Amino acid sequence: MLDAALSLFRERGYDAVKLEEIAEHAEVSPGTIYTYFKTKNDLLLEIVVDDLKLAIQEVDVLLQGPFGSAHEMLDRIIDCHCDGIEDRVSRDMWRVAVADYIRNPRSVFGTEYENSLTTIDRQFVMFFQRLMRENKLPRTHSARLLAAGLSNQFNMSFIEFIRSETMSLDAMATRLKRLSRLSLIPMSEQRPDPME
C-alpha cells in the first residue's frame, strides 16, 4: 500500500490522489486501507517515518563503528540524514507531512514521527558523549545541550529547505555542516560574532 501511494503521489501530486485510487493501485479494497490509515495524511506520515527509520539505522551503524575526526563524523551523520530526504518523498509531500504533524501531533503516525525525531536527538547526544569519552571534545560541555543545538540547526535548515523552491539538498547539507561545526568548537575558542 505504501509503495502504491508513493508511486501515485510522485506521479500525480499528493493533493490529486484519493485513498480509493491508492487502494485500486495497490489491488486492495478501500476498507483495507482504512483499516490501517484513517487519513491520506496518516499514510504519508508512515512513508516519511519509514524513511526516517532508514536514516536512523545508518547513523546507528556509524555510531557503533570507529570515529575519525569529530568534524568528519558529524559530516557523515548529516549526510545520512540528508541523503534520503528527497529519494522517495518530494518536497511537497514533506510540506504536507510536517504541517499535518504540527496540526495532529498526537495521531498514531504523528506519535511515530515524534518518536523518530526523539531517536535522532538521542543519536546526537550519543555522538557528543562519545566525543567526550574519546577526549575529542572537552567534558566541560553538556552533550544534551550540544545535541539540542544541533537538532535545532537541523530542524531549521530542513524547514528552510522544504519552504524553498530553489534551495538544493546539497546547499542545505553544506549549510548545516557549516553551522554544526560551531558545536564542536570549545566555547573558550569561539570568537565573538562581528555582527553583534
Number of domains: 2
Low-pLDDT regions: 187-196
SSE run: HHHHHHHHH
- Whole-number radius of gyration? 19 Å
CATH superfamily of the largest domain: Tetracycline Repressor, domain 2
What's the level 1 CATH class of the largest domain? Answer: Mainly Alpha
What separation lies between the terminal Cα atoms?
52 Å
Which sheet architecture does the biggest sheet show?
none
Mean pLDDT: 87
Give an overview of the whole structure.
- With 196 residues, the protein is mainly α.
- The chain has two domains: 1-36, Homeodomain-like (Arc Repressor Mutant, subunit A, Orthogonal Bundle); 40-185, Tetracycline Repressor, domain 2, CATH 1.10.357.
- It has helices spanning 2-12, 19-26, 30-36, 40-64, 70-83, 91-103, 108-133, 143-163, 169-180.
- Helix 1 (2-12) crosses helix 2, helix 4 runs antiparallel to helix 5 (70-83) and helix 8 packs antiparallel against helix 9.
- The longest helix has 26 residues, at 108-133.
- Mean pLDDT is 87; it is low at 187-196.
